[in-house]
Amino acid sequence: MSEAILWIVAAIWLGGAWLRIVQQARFYQIEEYMSGRYLRWVGADWKRLLPARPLAAWLLGLMLAAAAGGTLPQLILAASALIACAPQHHGEIKKPLVLTARVKRLLVAAAGISALAGLALALAVMRLSAADQPLPYLSIAIHAGGFALLLAAPVWLVCGNALMQPLEAWRRRRYLSAAAATLAQIQPRIIGITGSYGKTTTKRFLQEILSARFHTYASPKSYNTLMGISLAINRDLSNDFRAEIFISEMGAYVEGEIARICQLTPPDIGIITEVGPQHLERFGSLENVRKAKYELIAQLPAAGTAVFNWDNAYIREMVAQGYPAQRLTVSRELTLEQARESGIDWLGSDIRESLAGLSFTATHIPSGTSASIETRVLGEHNVSNLLLCIATAYHLGLPLSDIVMRIRRLSPAESRLERVKTAGGITIFNDAYSANPKSVVSALKVLGMHTGGARLLITPGMVELGALQDEENRKLGVLAAAAATDIVLVGRAQTAAILRGIRSTAFDPARVQVVDTLKEGSDWYQRHLKAGDAVLFLNDLPDTY
Amino acid sequence: MSSRRRRTIAVLFGGRSVEHDVSIVTGHQIMQALPAKQFTVVPVYITRDGAWYTGDALKGLEQYQDERLLERAGVRPCCLSPDTRHHGLILNPLASRFRKSEVLRLDVCFPALHGSHGEDGSLQGLLELADIPYVGCATLGSALANDKILTKMALRQAGLPVLDDFNFSRERWLEQPDAILEAISGSFPFPLFVKPATLGSSIGIGRADNQAQLRASIDIAVNFDRRILVEPAITGGVEINCSVIGFGADFEASVLEQPLSWDDFLSYEDKYLRGDEGMKSAERIIPAPISPQMTAQIQAASVSALKAIDGRGIARIDYLARPESGEFWLNEINTMPGSLALYLWRESGYTAADLVAKLVALALDAQAEKRRNVYDYKTNLLAVASQRGVKGAKGKG
Questions:
Q1: Is A402 on the interface with B (CB under 8 A)?
Q2: Which of B105, B107, B372 sits opposite A212 (nearest CB)?
Q3: Considering only alpha carbons, which residue of chain B is nearest residue A183?
Q4: Residue B397 pLDDT more than 50?
Q5: How far is CA A71 from the centre of its chain?
Q6: In this complex, do B105 and A395 lie within 8 Å of one another by their Cβ atoms?
Q7: Has domain A187-409 been given CATH number 3.40.1190.10?
Q8: Residue A305 contacts residue A395 (beta carbons within 8 Å)
Q9: Do the domains at A187-409 and A418-538 have one common CATH topology?
Q10: Domain spans of chain A?
Q11: For A418-538, CATH number?
């Protein structure tokens, strides 16, 4: 009887471990199955290593069981195991686990490994039992082993992933070669876009503009990894051979990644949007970022064309490297004189912005032709993105008049400084997609233009800027103080630097709130804002923050 | 502008038309003219009864004597898919365990088909559905030029000189031939020409010097078409031809030619088979021996005529002219002239390679022009209709 209960206790712990594996898989997925990053995230907070309720339940069960006699200890242990194993709450879930085939394989592998580990523990305990150890001792062994099984869920996940590596690698290779075969059949002209930020926006703008002449396919959303792009090709193009132009957005967290994407989608034209401190903590230095982005240019054929944002010092270095022969450059910061002197190709000048959108003059410096550009898109940094598109489209033979017409039709991409008005008359500037030192300046400027009511900023600040992060966030605080009338900061530790920035100004401290979750922030605005007010959602962070 | 790859171009020839054989010649002239550096050429041969084949074995004019040509290795059945995603040919459309069906993507199509089911807008319609750039006139221009009655209406409207005509349907002819004969002789003096409305070349066309010949000619003509037109013959005139290429605002007319065998009217054999290499060595005078003013007038009229039928790409426009008086009448527009009127363009400074390259470029421009249109206009009609039910939707009640 009592031994049967012990087996039940063991089964409860195993079930608990499996539940925890499923819960942890969500974070592992957010970290893109990079075990190092994931384990560092787990280790960063003792509550993640040793969750409080299971620990308390386990300890209490242990003590009560030791104190009681008869079959009661086993029952107590079973109860405490149940309490310890009940699913945990991880607060707000913005991105639930996506049940991909890979995650399913991973879960099965991790569950199997944990079951094997549990079985090994049970066998060890059985040997103790054979050695006529007293029952309480066994109970304690089972209880302790089970708890370890539960706590080690992240380890089982990582082991499961390691076990699946050969299979995943084989599948990846098959997937990649299928994508390559599809592209070989279509043979579109390929335009690669990379940069620390502005990639997805530029890609979308360019697709819209080039469609005036070519059937243009762009990798969807922000698919910008090797696997993401193969996925897009296999899904969208294996039965659709129309594309004359393929725009490939190339992202990178490490050196060599863009070169690998270029093998799959060999570019004829390469566009570099910005080099900045995005993902700096993964790259180490801005110099490494520049090197990684330059891979796109290095992979161009000698007869290819590179399009550069001249306003970025790191990108100017790339231009100076002299490859390929045809290098187009755009600027929105130079004067006409400077533009002529430095020999750039396209200049954006006379930039005006209102809440209705942007307008500027685009001048083709070599020929002197110019056009006035108007668009509903907000954010001054988009002038650079648009100039890159104009240079590329003009190079591909689109008449300037077609380009102007297409830009007039552009709308902002979802969650990228998108402006909507609620039924209640509140203006929402949604810039939640991501934030970088360039875009926050533009976004706050747009918020500052709002008149006729309060201007609320809700932000968790910027992340992954490495050593520059605190300083950039402090600057964000200073700018925010100038642009907003009210500020809600999401996440205490995360926003400390912003708060320092705000406090260095004369901004009324009573109008700054710090809350723990985005939901609290949204609730706050729904309670406090009224018709005529505006709110800017600046950046949103994954659940691992 | 650099391009890593060659364009894949399908040249379509043969076809379900009385001009089947001429089309094979034209198709081969085009394939030979396409520079191999820039193009991968895919021959598409359409048989007399409308079966489609492709394969490298179909290149080479001499092979078309071989009755077993289509059984050779590498010759595969194919069809042009109207599905925009395929953007090309489906090889082995009826797949079996031993014959895999696959898509051959095309960048551009070059129809070299003359007459029915090729030059008349039907193939162009298929290419429009497929959304593949193609050489030559679009659906409307092809269809219009194919119909002599409607062409003349459009040209009259554009102020271009055309002969008066009398037209009628086969049904009416079968019911009341005498009334028609009477009406014709009441309107025009002999000699007259009888023409089926929609056939190219000279097939079915007859000349009538009297009532009996007129009746006989019409009896022949109604075998070829449902609609017939009769127009006065221009005596003492010459035939003058002019070719035009272009699209949008950029049109160009070639030098003029005067075919030599006007005197007693060109028979089919005269028109295509005299000489060794088909059309290009038929006897003709280039440039036509007429005054510079008249040449300029005819060239201008040719450009206007192609624009008037919303044509593009290439056409050869045929005239009847009296050089002494300076009068001329536009006779017909061929939107896919035999041999691409290469013999005229050579005199205007185009090699065969230049001409086909120019025509492909025009095809791509025309396709680009279409991309300026919006085809995907989202409405909330379906949402509204599904809410109200189909009965309440617009168009039904």
A1: yes
A2: B372
A3: B105
A4: no
A5: 53
A6: no
A7: yes
A8: yes
A9: no
A10: 2-166, 187-409, 418-538
A11: 3.90.190.20
